[in-house]
Each structure stands twice: as C-alpha cells, then as structure tokens.
C-alpha cells in the first residue's frame, strides 16, 4: 500500500510529483467493502450478527508505514464500514478504528501464552511477515499478568518479507529461460515464458521455501521438470529439467542467490536493534521470531548463527536466544490479528507509545509582542477582530509532539475556547479544528 502511495503508481486526481490521497483511497475502500461484506455474511450465519451488533475495528500496520498511510487505511475502513452497514455504526468505536503496530500485536499475543519472560526483562520481537519485516525492542512491566511497558528502541523495518523470495525465484527462472523462446512453440497458444515459470511457484512456496535450510545443506540439487527444454550444460539444463544447485563451496549457488539478499536484510535490522539496545545499556537475551517468514528454517538458522556471533563479542558476553515457538511451524500466522484483538480489549494496560505525529488545536491568541513569553509575536502580523476591536494571531497550539512518549492512560488538560459572533447572526456555530503534522514540532505554538 505504501509503495502505491509513495511512488504514485495509481493516479487519477494527482501527479507523480504531487500525489492525491483520493487516488488510492477509493481503491482500498472498494477492496475493504468486499472484505467486510464477506465477513458480515459469515458473522450473520455463524454468530447471529445484526445491524444492532456493536463493532470495534482493530487495525495492524507495519512499523515502516508512514502515519499518512495509516490514516488513509483508517479512512478507507471507516468509509467501507458505513457503506456495508457493518453492525451498529452509530457508536464512536466504529468511527475511530484502533491502530496497533504489527510487532506490538505479535508481542501481546506472545505474552498471553508465554512463561519464558519475566518482569523488567527486555526482549526483541522480530515480526517477519510476507511483505514487511519489523523489529522492535520492548520491556516487560513490573507486575503480573505480564504487560508490555514501553518501546525501548526506535523500531526498524524493511520490505524484505517472504513474498520477495517468490519474486526472486520467478526472476531467476525467467533469466534462465529468457533465450529459450522455442518452448512457446511446444505449449498451447497464449502461453508465455512468464506463465510457464508461474507453474513452478506453488511448489516453491509450499516446499522449498518452507522446508529447506540453506545453512546446513551442501550439494543440494533440485530438478524442475520442463518438457521440451533443450540440454545446456552452462545453464544446467539436463534432459528436460532445470537443475537448481547449492554446492556451498564457492561455486555459483542458485539457492543462496535466492535467499541470501533477504536473509542479510533481516539480519541487518536485527543487528541494528541489538546494537542500539547495547548502547543504551539494555541487556537483550531473547529474540522472538514470529509470522510466516519466521517459520523459514533458513531464516532461523541464519539468525541463530548471527546471534551466536553477537553473544561471543566482548561487549556482549552473554547468550542471546532465538525463540521460535513450540514446533517447526513456529507461532501461528494469526498471532498478529489475535494480538490486535487482545490489545483492543485491554487498552488501559497497553504499553506507552511514541507519538507518530504532532497534534495541535487551532487557536486565536491575543497579540502581545511586548509581553514576556510572547516574543515570537514580534515577527508575526496580527489580525484585528472587529467584534472585540482586539488584535489576534491565529496559531496552532500543539499538545502532542511527534516521538514523545504517551502512556496508555493519559488525559490532556482541557482547553478554554471563546467564540465571538456578531449579534445579528441567526446561527452561531462553534467548532474546533485539530491539526496533524508528521514533522516534529519543537515549540507549543505556530502561527498560521
């Protein structure tokens, strides 16, 4: 989603240099309408769902998503829920979906059934999904039941999930077959080299990607049957087969070319979290590996080897364990969605979070350039209010600053508002405007 927005791939209202939110908002709203319609039908059949059912939505987003992208998805979900008439949409909860990061949701799920972490312990969640990989460091609170306390290190993330292995696999085969155009004469009309290669993806997804451990298999050879393929020793085409190898002795290694670029990027993210935690004096002894890519034997072994190297460094000096779940498949693929539900049901006991944006309220401020504390007024132009015959500045007073730590239960001080209207107006409308900025603000008030 973020790629579509940032690169301006979908364009109708905006341009590549000046994107318009509407270009992607309608697309995702239409998609979510289909999802919610199906969900609604299932809930009606299985759980007596009705228009009076109270619904709250919980959204999980990757840590690498910008706040703007999260807001677009949030708006799309709100609109889709109204179009589908998904339950009782008159409540505030459906109007404001609860947003939680994917690694936080995974951590909450993990804590719900895990006894290997203890109060005040610091650990890392490596949320390795299909599209994104998010790495984040948390501390456990001081009491039972175990709850997340706060993020201890700025999260790291990258688009290096397991789906990109499929792309690497496809591109490797296309590159091998790019000069074998004669194959198209042996296949039904309408076939292309890409459609031929696509036939090899399901087996790669279900077998090679999920079962092979590249760190321990040497001399590994896989034969892909392709009728009509001519023999070519240089390309390793043998009797109607594409031979995929991994000798592990410095030769050209097909499997390593597929996996290593992504494994290295995940390792780089993990290393950065560990190194930053170390700089802050935090002792991380456990790394929890979750989700689809987290079940990959290759990724598990690759990260274990790296953690072993880190543990042996003089500045570390203790073992760092990679925790992968109770069996070969690891934690369930529903860990993030289940964790989001648990988080939404227990907001008061959630972790303290870093604000992703700055929030302010629109205000008019009495112009006082000579008064101590209002020196910034001197460089601004005031506007006269004819009703009160006073000079005012129109400003945004920020009450939340990006990157500030917000506790799970927090109440802001109330604002006192004064609205002046000409007495001859028949209708007096009072409204408050909230401004959002994704840039850090370093002072409380900014002139508009």
TrEMBL record:
Protein's recorded name: Uncharacterized protein
InterPro entries tied to this protein: ATPase_NBD
């Amino acid at each position: 989603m973020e790629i579509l927005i940032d690169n301006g791939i979908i364009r109708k209202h905006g341009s590549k240099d000046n994107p318009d939110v509407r270009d992607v908002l309608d697309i995702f709203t239409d998609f979510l309408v289909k999802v919610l319609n199906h969900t609604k039908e299932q809930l009606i059949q299985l759980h007596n769902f009705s228009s009076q059912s109270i619904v709250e939505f919980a959204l999980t987003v990757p840590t690498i998503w910008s706040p703007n992208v999260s807001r677009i998805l949030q708006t799309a979900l709100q609109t889709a829920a109204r179009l589908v008439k998904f339950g009782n949409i008159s409540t505030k909860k459906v109007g404001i979906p609860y947003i939680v990061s994917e690694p936080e949701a995974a951590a909450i799920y993990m804590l719900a059934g895990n006894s290997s972490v203890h109060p005040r312990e610091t650990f890392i969640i490596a949320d390795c999904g299909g599209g994104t990989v998010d790495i984040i460091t948390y501390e456990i609170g001081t009491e039972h039941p175990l709850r997340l306390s706060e993020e201890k290190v700025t999260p790291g993330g990258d688009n290096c999930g397991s789906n990109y292995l499929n792309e690497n696999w496809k591109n490797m085969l296309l590159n091998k077959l790019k000069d074998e155009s004669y194959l198209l004469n042996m296949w039904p009309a309408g076939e292309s080299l890409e459609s031929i290669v696509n036939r090899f993806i399901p087996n790669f997804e279900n077998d090679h990607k999920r079962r092979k451990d590249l760190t321990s298999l040497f001399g590994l050879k896989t034969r892909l049957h392709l009728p009509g393929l001519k023999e070519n020793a240089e390309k390793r085409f043998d009797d109607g087969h594409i031979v995929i190898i991994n000798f592990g002795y410095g030769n050209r290694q097909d499997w390593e070319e597929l996996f290593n670029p992504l494994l290295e990027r995940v390792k780089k993210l993990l290393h950065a979290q560990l190194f930053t935690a170390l700089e802050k004096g935090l002792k991380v002894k456990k790394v929890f590996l979750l989700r689809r890519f987290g079940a990959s034997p290759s990724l598990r072994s690759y990260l274990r080897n790296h953690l072993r190297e880190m543990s042996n460094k003089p500045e570390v000096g203790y073992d760092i364990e990679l925790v992968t779940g109770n069996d070969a498949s690891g934690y369930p693929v529903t860990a993030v969605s289940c964790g989001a539900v648990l988080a939404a049901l227990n907001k008061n006991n959630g972790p303290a979070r870093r604000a992703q944006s700055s929030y302010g309220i629109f205000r008019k401020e009495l112009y006082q350039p000579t008064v101590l504390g209002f020196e910034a007024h001197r460089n601004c132009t005031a506007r006269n209010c004819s009703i009160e015959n006073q000079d005012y500045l129109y400003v945004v007073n920020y009450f939340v600053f990006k990157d500030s730590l917000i506790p799970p239960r927090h109440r802001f001080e109330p604002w006192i508002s004064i609205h002046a209207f000409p007495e001859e107006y028949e209708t007096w409308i009072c409204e408050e405007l909230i401004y959002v900025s994704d840039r850090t603000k370093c002072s409380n008030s900014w002139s508009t």
